[in-house]
Amino acid sequence: MVTNVSNNSLIRKVFLQFxxxxxxxxxxxxxAYAAPVKRAxxxxxxxxxxxxxxxxEMTNSYQNILSVTVTSPQAxxxxxxxxxxxxxxxxxDIGGWAAFSIxxxxxxxxxxxxxxxxIPAGTGHGxxxxxxxxxxxxxPVAAGSNTFYLVGIRDPNSSFSSINAVSPKLTAIxxxxxx
Length: 179
Description:
alpha+beta, single chain, 49% strand, four-stranded antiparallel beta sheet
């Protein structure tokens, strides 16, 4: 019997390629059935919440105008912004003020984060004044639920017939790290 050498080499090459292909398919197939990769929890995601109102009539004592609760996945910081405008109606010439603060203190002043608007005496009677206000603060937070407040008070000695916070807004943005 006469054997052709070139046919044997060709058969060996085809067999070897077939064998390598089977091994690769088995390896790839076992990867496809490997345990799924679980996503690790991501703790440094930012989050935002806000609250708003149309009109809030202010009184002579500190009141919560708005509140926002942020659930922090871990310790970090919350950037707070409180804004709106004050509408004051004056029947005489005495003047008056309104103060606002943002932070974690409910129904009281957050002294580090406070601003005020004022109408001085002698500006005229029977006038309505609309004055914008805005505050921004960065507050450290612990993991879990954290509540923040926009608090306001009007001048207890003022003769203004009304002092209102108009279109107040409170925004809280959670971030994990400071720069």
